[in-house]
Design brief:
The chain is of the alpha/beta class. It is built from 14 helices and twelve strands. The chain has helices at about 40-45, 60-65, 85-100, 110-120, 135-145, 160-165, 180-185, 205-230, 245-255, 275-280, 305-315, 320-335, 345-350, 375-385, and strands spanning about 5-10, 15-25, 55, 70-75, 125-130, 150-155, 170-175, 195, 235-240, 260-270, 315-320, 365-370. The strands form two sheets. It has an eight-stranded mixed β-sheet with strand order 1-2-11-10-9-12-4-3, with helices on both faces. Strands 7-6-5-8 form a four-stranded parallel β-sheet, sandwiched between helices. The protein starts with a strand and ends with a helix. The model is unreliable at about 1-15 (pLDDT under 50). The structure holds pyridoxal-5'-phosphate. Pyridoxal-5'-phosphate binds next to α5 and α9. Pyridoxal-5'-phosphate binds near residues 82, 133, 134, 245 and 371.
């Protein structure tokens, strides 16, 4: 890997598409500590819960020029097309108890919470801002609990994602602005009965997004258990795609002190808020005006409570144009794995900077397929169908 920020343009299907590899000047993996371990027992109590598969993608490995590619496939987590239910469910559970002033018991479960809510006489409403997956997951939790949900989405959110949220029984409100504007609108709804369950944090709003990150640890635990059981090899390269950085913080907290030679964070070029913040050494906001097809990563401001883990946990960052995400969707499809654009972004970053990252036959690459094709129209276009 080259030193400092390197910029390059690579030929792509006749056009020129940009990617950028940025060495993280603040990497200090030994300083990144594990988060809370409470969520996995809670998740095991959820209806329809089961660990997701880790797939070996041989065509993808050949394309990357590495020995093995492991794909943690979150495209069917509890019947939903992304990993987000892990964070949303744990954060809803803890957030509702906090709103009611109740201390969580030793055996947390949504069923027990539903019974408790029914007898409490409180009319709670769950609120979430989202670019799709998180809001759908919060809506699902509300449905399980028998609560109404209001889900705020930025202007331009594709119809299939809005319909999926409505399909969970939530009221969807379109905010005329970006994802950051949507977050601000959700925060304004917080009151005695409205529990705002956002996956990003800001000054004064840290508990719930902290529980979101803790919830994601269940997915990482599943991978570590498989490694330690000898079912899959220890990865040498781990890639995590970044929106506000909650997912990537959870990845860093689990993998920063493990043997991987490289932890790589991947962002869309047009919404590279964590890369830019890492270069600045402090949180900065980027425009993120909403054009990337990697909708789940289209965020302008990093989550405050995730930032330390991202700042110290990643060896480097790769920013990519949409074309790389689309290519990664096609490559995974050739392995029989269907991904959405955000879901394929980790792999896309490695494909884009494979040579600069010195990927080789001895590498075992771990990527997280964080969503299935949640925009079916674009998915078919990408595959040329
Ligand atoms: C499919 C998918 N992958 C990755 C992410 C990134 O997660 P985070 O915003 O925590 O960085 C998101 C966020 O919405 C997402 O929807």
């Amino acid at each position: 890997m080259g030193a400092g920020a390197a910029s390059r343009r690579v030929p792509y299907h006749g056009a020129m598409a940009a990617s950028r590899l940025v060495r993280n000047p603040h990497v200090d993996r030994a300083s990144v500590t594990e988060g809370s371990a409470a969520a996995p027992a809670f998740h095991a109590s959820l209806p329809g819960f089961a660990p997701t598969p880790i797939r070996r993608a041989t065509t993808t490995a050949a394309r990357l020029g590495v020995g093995t590619v492991l794909v943690k496939d979150e495209s069917r987590r509890m019947g939903m097309p992304s990993f987000k239910i892990l964070g949303a469910s744990w954060a809803c559970y803890r957030g509702i108890l906090a709103k009611l002033g109740v201390t969580p018991g030793p055996a947390p479960s949504l069923d027990a919470l539903r019974d408790f809510l029914a007898s409490s006489g409180r009319d709670l409403v769950l609120v979430a801002a989202t670019d799709g997956n998180h809001g759908r997951a919060v809506a699902r939790v509300a449905r399980i609990l028998g609560l109404p949900a209001i889900v705020l989405v930025p202007a331009g959110t594709v119809a299939s994602r809005v319909e999926a949220i409505e399909g969970e029984g939530a009221e969807v409100r379109v905010v005329d602005g970006t994802y950051d504007d949507t977050i601000a609108a959700s925060a304004a709804l917080d009151d005695a009965n409205h529990v705002v369950v956002d996956d990003t944090s800001w000054e004064g709003y840290t508990d719930i997004p902290g529980w979101v990150i803790d919830g994601y640890s269940t997915m990482l635990d599943e991978v570590v258990r498989a490694i330690e059981a000898g079912e899959v090899p220890e990865p040498t390269v781990v890639a995590g795609q970044m929106g506000v950085g909650a997912l990537s913080a959870a990845i860093a907290r689990k993998f920063a002190r493990r043997p991987a030679r490289l932890l790589v964070g991947v962002e869309p070029t047009d919404a590279a808020c964590i890369t830019e913040s890492a270069l600045a050494g402090r949180i900065v906001t980027v425009a993120a005006e909403g054009h990337t097809c990697m909708a789940g990563l289209n965020c302008g401001t990093p989550s405050e409570i995730a930032f330390e883990s991202n700042l110290h946990g990643y060896d480097c960052f790769v920013t990519i144009a949409d074309e790389f995400a689309e290519e990664a969707v096609r490559v995974l499809h050739a392995d029989g794995i269907d991904a959405g654009e955000s879901g394929a972004a980790g792999l896309a970053g490695l494909l884009a900077e494979r040579e600069a990252l010195s990927l080789g036959e001895s590498d075992v690459v771990l990527v997280f397929l964080t969503e299935g094709p949640t925009d079916p129209v674009n998915f078919r276009r990408i595959l040329g169908e």
